[in-house]
Amino acid sequence: MTEPFAGQPGAREDDIVVEAELADAAPDAETQVPADGAAPGAEQAQIAELTEALQRERAQFQNFKRRSAEEFAQAAAGGRARLLEKLLPLLDDFDRAREHGDLEDGPLKAFADKLVGVLSGEQLDKFGEPGDRFNPELHEAIQDEGSGVDPVIGTVFRPGYRVGDRVLRTAMVIVTDPEPAAPGAETPGQA
pTM of this prediction? Predict the structure, then answer.
């Protein structure tokens, strides 16, 4: 891939500067006669060849920088995900303590709230609530109590967590049928 020349659209300012420096450094073919007797066109061809080689090297370096930045970002995201995965059992323990009323007040409640806040700030999302539509990519069904026509989550044994689009842990659930609509209640789409 070659970079655009100064006169082409998409040329950057540093490309123009490099081309101007090359033009200043190149001898004027009309005013100077080469000492070795080579034709002036040969020098122009050599300049064009070197300019093209320089542009290829610059493009390769830009690609290297881009790939390095992408690899660094992927490594950082992978490290963050591994750390968050290791903290999930701690969140499970806090959820069980909250269900038993052990986190209603005191220093443990403050610690749990701060930890959940920090992890939420890292885009850790909890999913898998009763009544949610069952998705086999996000939920692990350990029992199916429904007809299988329109499955929803009935009971959640273990919530699932994800960071962005990456699922760290699937939710462990019991699948059931949706609750029937109460008679006289409007269903969506009715007026």
Answer: 0.60
